[in-house]
Amino acid sequence: DDYYQELGGKEGVEKIVDNFINEISFDQNIVKFFEGTDITRLREKLIEQFCHESGGPCEYTGDSMKDVHAGMKITKAEFNRVVELLQAAMDDAGTPQTAQNRLIRSLAPMRPDIIHQ
Ligand code: HEM
Predict the structure, then answer these.
(1) Is residue 35 pLDDT above 90, yes or no?
(2) Is residue 61 situated within a structural domain?
(3) Does a structural domain hold residue 68?
């Protein structure tokens, strides 16, 4: 079921992604992965992805999760930490708990394409 409006629509998703990037930037263990990253592109692709996953009017135009995270050797602990940072970002954005759970649940199937690659 669609929950884009529960995330706060376009403005809500933008706020979540901005908070998420901010959380990442303050985490010593996670930010190092993003040293060579074009943050403007990352922001745009995350907004598209969260919008699309929640049933909003967006297409995801980024690369596959497998291609993007290939060679990073992301551990389970690092993956779990990034999920925590996303939860903190949604708390800060005032996202209702039900919508938070739904976004996390829709990203969970991507885990095998992201860790140990
Ligand atoms: C639920 C988990 C995750 C999701 C949904 C996700 C999603 C994404 C998306 C949509 C992009 C942009 C793709 C593009 O530019 O085409 C991206 C890039 C990136 N992700 Fe993730 N990601 C996740 C977990 C992680 C974790 C755990 C790490 C590292 C600890 C990580 C590190 C990166 C890095 C470094 C980039 C930028 C790659 C580059 O510079 O080209 N991601 N991710």
Answers:
(1) yes
(2) yes
(3) yes
User: Cα dist. 51→26, 66, 95, 109 in Å?
Assistant: 25, 20, 14, 17
Q: Checking phi first, is residue 116 left (phi over 0); if not, alpha (psi -120 to 50) or beta?
A: left
Q: Mutate which of 23, 106, 107, 114 to test ligand 1's pocket (most atoms within 8 Å of Cβ)?
A: 114
Q: What is the ipTM of this complex?
A: 0.98
CATH number at residue 20: 1.10.490.10
Nearest atom, ligand 1, residue 33 CA: 35
pLDDT at 1 over 90: no
Query: How many angstroms does the Cα of residue 69 sit away from the middle of ligand 1?
Result: 6
